[in-house]
Amino acid sequence: MRPFGYERAATADEALALHEDGAVYLGGGTNLVDLMRLGVATPSRLVDVARLPHDRVELEVDGGLVIGAAVTNSDLAADRSVREGHPVLAEAVLAGASGQIRNLATVGGNLLQRTRCSYFQDAAKPCNKRDPGSGCPAREGEHHNLAILGQSEACVATHPSDMAVALAALDASVRVRGRSGERVVPLEDFYRLPDGAPDRDTTLEPGELVTAVEVPPLGMPSRYRKVRERASFAFALVSVAAALEVGNGVVTGVRLALGGVAHRPWRARRAEDALRGAAATEESFLRAAEAELEAAEPLRDNAYKVPLARNLIVRTLMELGEGT
Amino acid sequence: MDSANTTGDAVPVRAAVALAVNGTEHRLDVDTRSSLLDVLREDLGLTGTKKGCDHGQCGACTVLLDGRRANACLALAVAHDGARVVTVEGLAEEDGRLSAVQESFLEHDAFQCGYCTPGQLCSATAVLEEVRQGWPSAAAADVAADPVLDDDEIRERMSGNLCRCGAYPGIVAAVHAAAGRSREVTGA
Rounded to an integer, what distance in angstroms lies between the CA atom of residue A122 and that of residue A35? Predict the structure, then answer.
């Protein structure tokens, strides 16, 4: 591992001041320390932001949430107001990693974790995300767990977070602090597709610090469903975050996002459009899933993700529909 | 943290770290790159905590960090200055009596080669506390409900601890039994 300086920030302003060229913010370190050990991340300085006072989940009067970036994944998933008002978020967090990792991992770090594409994680291999212009061996090589939607010639990586998929469905926004002040970025504008710059997972500017996530109230049943290669402690092949409201047999509200299929959490707007006002039946759910997945461009070894995503969308919506 | 200023070149950086490990205070001078795992094993000679994968995937290095289980291989020692750490060496009572979890692992033959066992023991100890505090797991049908520690819950909660010998049935039985034992002890 390359030697690095270490500074612990007590406030967001101090963190911003300590951030210099080559520095990286440290949360729980569960992904960053591993990438440093692999030689994939080589920061000259770590600015530790895990002890910043952004460590609470606040329930707003309208039922929305403000989640501090330093809240651990465990505390987020255990929070009563999250479990009761936004169960899809608690379920998504619990579907990720292990109990040990969730105790260390922070919300900010979870958002900013890097892809687990095996080429990205191997410093000896070409990878346009790690080393722009070096190539993407995944297109022809090992890609059974990589993207089917929105990928580019240069990058077919998937975003690994479960939590971010739930946040995408929940219309969450990310509070970001920079030297010029604070901005609030809708999650859909926070993450990006690989087009043009596969090395950039997000629209964060250098040195900007994630301080919190804002989640509006939900008010309808929600659920997170994840398919993986073993029953626990594995990344998603495909996951679905969904919320559904049905009145008189008709879909009156729906939120749908997919994980494990793209460079970013994939908000399934086409499916949502197809569902709003439609009969809450298996047939409509299937039609909506197919509308979303029409855009899929699977690679040689990951075409299985298309029917997997379709079936998981239908099943999750059926489960939610039965509960209403 | 004066010693930990940034250097543009690749010169190792050292930092002062205080750790309370199994009740004993230690003041250490560590390389900023040192994991908590390496500090425990190499600097403090506490070799009960094992290095398996060194990537957070196997759980052999699980310790209790400020009361919560964590992978010591992913924790930079410098980032945990001031922490309380309990390793497998610190699980038993002061008089040497084994904890309920340790007794149950013996009784249910919850290991074969023993390499993953220190991590399994620390993890299981934390699982019982997490359930006491009402933390849910992915095994829950209703994430808002209070958890009941059945076998599916134990398997899910212990999934961050791999056992190459496949002693899982014994581990599940041991955790189940330990949950019963600790209920008797606390009268809960």
Answer: 9
Which domains does chain B possess? 10-90 (3.10.20.30), 100-186 (1.10.150.120)
Domain that holds residue A270: 222-322
Whether A244 maps to a domain, the answer reads yes
Rounded to the nearest angstrom, the minimum Cα separation between B118 and chain A is 14
Q: ∠B162-B164-B170 over CA atoms, to 5°? A: 75
At residue A72, the 3 state secondary structure works out as: strand
ipTM attached to this prediction = 0.96
Q: Token pair of B43, please?
A: 């600097």
Q: Which of A170, A233, A146, A177 is nearest to A12 (CA)?
A: A177
CATH of the domain at A232: 3.30.390.50
pLDDT digits (tens, 9 = 90+) for A235-275: 999 999 999 999 999 999 999 999 999 999 999 999 999 99
Q: Residues A51, A10: contact at Cβ < 8 Å?
A: yes
Phi, psi of A246 (to 5 degrees): -125, 130
Q: Does B65 touch chain A (CB under 8 A)?
A: yes
- Residue A27: its chain B contacts at CB < 8 A? none
Q: How far apart are the first and last CA of chain B?
A: 44
Per-residue pLDDT of A185-197, as tens digits, reads: 999 999 999 999 9
Rounded to a whole number, what is the largest CA-CA distance in chain B? 58
Domain count, chain A: 1
Centre a 10 Å sphere on the Cβ of residue A2 and count the other Cβ atoms it contains.
12
Tell whether A243 is covered by a domain.
Answer: yes
What span, in angstroms and rounded, lies between the C-alpha atoms of B42 and B22? 16
In a domain, A176, yes or no: no
State the smallest CA–CA distance between residue A101 and chain B in angstroms: 6
Query: What 3-state class would DSSP assign to B74?
Result: coil
- One-letter amino acid identity for A99? G
Mutation pick from B74, B85, B161 vs chain A, by most beta carbons of A within 10 Å, is B74
Across the interface, whether the CB atoms of B143 and A83 are under 8 A apart is answered yes
